[in-house]
Design brief:
ten-stranded antiparallel β-sheet; five-stranded mixed β-sheet
Length: 588
């Protein structure tokens, strides 16, 4: 489909009966979050709030929160988009006219990657005087957030060294009428550009687009190779060139059909405490110093719409987008690494905390080589836990992955720990921001036949320690215990008792993690431990410089002192939404 701007997509969704216009006045502080979260869980429609308290602009949310809307935007499945790119790249190795002619439809798409300059950009219809970001319908998503945040801004920057442009999505806390935070995480393009400018003792000019066509918004969340412009990739996805103009002040190439544009600069050496913020790991990221964006000008088109997104405990809208992105890029990764059968990062665990790869092994331990490539590749390098399985294992079904661990994981041969590594900025389990550890679990069958298991005496486990409130055994591979306190001590007691010798994994979680909810169980298990400090075995022997582990792998995934709080909504807000549900016109 070709959507040249956001309003054309809204009209399309209207025609598909996949958009609800909410005319009742709704508060952007917490109330919209609670409404949207409920609708996302039901894979419901996009929501257009036409009467947002404190603002004259309508607000759009959940535009990407269902797979069907992603496919409408792309005109096909995300995997088919990636497969087209991979087949074209393969045709270039080596190039020939017959192969290129067979891929001529892709060539026409590639010709659409160069943005198209227009002389009268609709986004410049009105300049806001004075510039004041507070008139926008900006959300406070969670009760203990540090304030209101722009949650879906497309941040345009240009390298002061080579002039290459980047578009990324970074949250922006509102500090005042013309100042916001700029949450640049490590390994993000905009942050690299700012670092380059700061080394030159210069301000970094930038522009923030709030609302663009859905192809560009989707491109902005894609982990594109450095130097590949998201505007160009949006043209490929759309199948026609992106209407654009060159900003006078920043010299950036910006989308002419945007809804809002905020222009300004980020000075060097200026930091301000930003946060807390309820992020996609399902906890509050703690307040920390980040650069400051100074807004000089705000433009908007006639009758603009302001898009937002909410992140938090799964499921949320960003998980649908993340799954689409990894589907899209899988064929290209397979082209570069032919041994890779499939790869899946679990949205339930915040993507970066758990990734499973299936590998065709052509030599011993080739799967481990693949895991080391993953941990050094772009955004994949932020992965905390990599599990390796055989090609016949469905990497997208965690019970199947557990069966592979049950049958083939031997800690003495198959556990690799990487301490003191860079880690996702949002990860709160390390000793310092941006630092943590990683682990690789090799559950391929190259060296071991399936091992018979006798199971676990669950009554004996529950009776072992009064702090164990509940326990669940999954696929005779993972024993999860709900522990009131002293998670590590309880797990050490379990290992010493040898009650759990028949399972490869034993984990402790806190009482707020439900054992019968597969989504929240993965969330609670993989977001709350540091691999180096919170995993251990019953026995460890040092042979030379190499540790050899024996017994089950224990994971203390309980909430620990110093961790930020998990996200919960205020009871009063939930009751308010219950009471007003019919006013919203929602059937979900």
């Amino acid at each position: 489909m070709i959507f040249k701007n956001l309003r054309s997509f809204i009209e399309f969704l209207d025609g598909k009966n996949d958009l609800v216009r909410i005319r009742a006045e709704v508060d952007p502080v917490l109330e919209i979050t609670e409404i949207a979260t409920r609708v996302v869980r039901q894979k419901g429609p996009a929501l257009l709030f036409e009467n947002v308290k404190g603002s004259s602009f309508p607000l759009l949310i959940n535009m990407f929160g269902a797979e069907r809307r992603i496919e409408w935007i792309l005109g096909r499945s995300p995997f088919e988009v990636g497969w087209e790119l991979a087949r074209f790249a393969d045709a270039l190795l080596p190039p020939s006219f017959p192969k290129m002619w067979a891929k001529r439809s892709t060539i026409f798409r590639l010709l659409s990657m160069r943005p198209k300059r227009v002389s009268h950009p609709p986004v410049l219809f009105h300049r806001m005087e004075p510039a004041d970001v507070r008139v926008l319908p900006i959300l406070q998503c969670w009760p203990k957030d540090g304030g209101r945040f722009l949650t879906f801004p497309l941040v345009f920057t240009k390298s002061p060294i080579d002039g290459r442009q980047n578009v990324g999505v970074y949250r922006m806390q509102v500090f005042g009428p013309r100042e916001t935070g700029m949450h640049w995480q490590i390994a993000r393009g905009g942050g690299v550009h700012y670092q380059q400018a700061e080394e030159k003792k210069e301000s970094l000019p930038l522009a923030v687009v709030a609302g663009a066509d859905p192809h560009l918004m989707l491109s902005a969340v894609c982990p594109l190779p450095e130097g590949l412009d998201e505007m160009a990739f949006a043209g490929f996805l759309r199948g026609c060139r992106t209407p654009s103009f060159r900003a006078t002040s920043s010299k950036l190439t910006l989308p002419a059909e945007a809804e809002f544009i905020l222009e300004g600069r980020v000075p060097p050496q200026e930091r301000r405490s930003e946060g807390p913020f309820g992020d996609h790991f399902g906890h509050y990221s703690q307040a920390s110093p980040f650069p400051v964006f100074h807004v000089d000008r705000i433009f908007h088109r006639q009758h603009p719409v302001f898009p937002v997104a909410v992140v938090g405990k799964p499921p949320q809208e960003d998980q649908v987008m993340g799954d689409a992105v990894q589907e899209m890029f899988l064929p290209l990764l397979q082209l570069m690494h032919p041994e890779l059968a499939d790869l899946w990062a679990y949205s339930e665990a915040g993507f970066h905390n758990l990734l499973v790869a299936s590998v065709h092994q052509r030599f011993d331990k080739e799967a481990v080589k693949t895991a080391l490539w993953i941990l050094g590749e772009g955004q994949l390098a932020m992965t905390k836990c990599v599990i390796l399985v055989d090609p016949e294992v469905n990497v997208r079904r965690f019970p199947d992955v557990l069966k592979a661990l049950r049958d083939h994981f031997d800690p003495a041969e198959d556990f690799t720990l990487l301490p003191s590594t860079s880690q996702d900025t949002l990860d709160f389990t390390g000793l310092k921001m941006n630092l943590g550890s990683k682990m690789i679990l090799d559950a391929t069958s190259a060296k071991t036949a399936p091992r018979p298991t006798k199971g676990v005496n669950m009554e004996a486990v529950k009776a072992l320690d009064g702090r164990i409130q509940g326990a669940r055994l999954i696929e005779n591979a993972l024993l999860v215990c709900q522990v009131q306190s002293g998670g590590r001590l309880v797990l050490e007691k379990l290992l010493a008792s040898k009650l759990v010798d028949e399972v490869p994994l034993v984990a402790g979680v806190s009482p707020d993690v439900p054992l019968d909810d597969p989504t929240l169980l993965l969330w609670g298990l993989f977001t709350r431990f540091d691999c180096a400090r919170d995993t251990f075995f019953r026995e460890v022997a040092i042979k030379g410089g190499h540790p050899v582990y024996q017994g089950p792998l224990a994971i203390d995934a309980t909430w620990k002192e110093g961790y930020p709080e998990p996200l919960t909504m205020d009871d009063d807000v939930m009751k308010k939404v219950d009471r007003r549900w019919k006013e919203y016109g929602l059937s979900y």
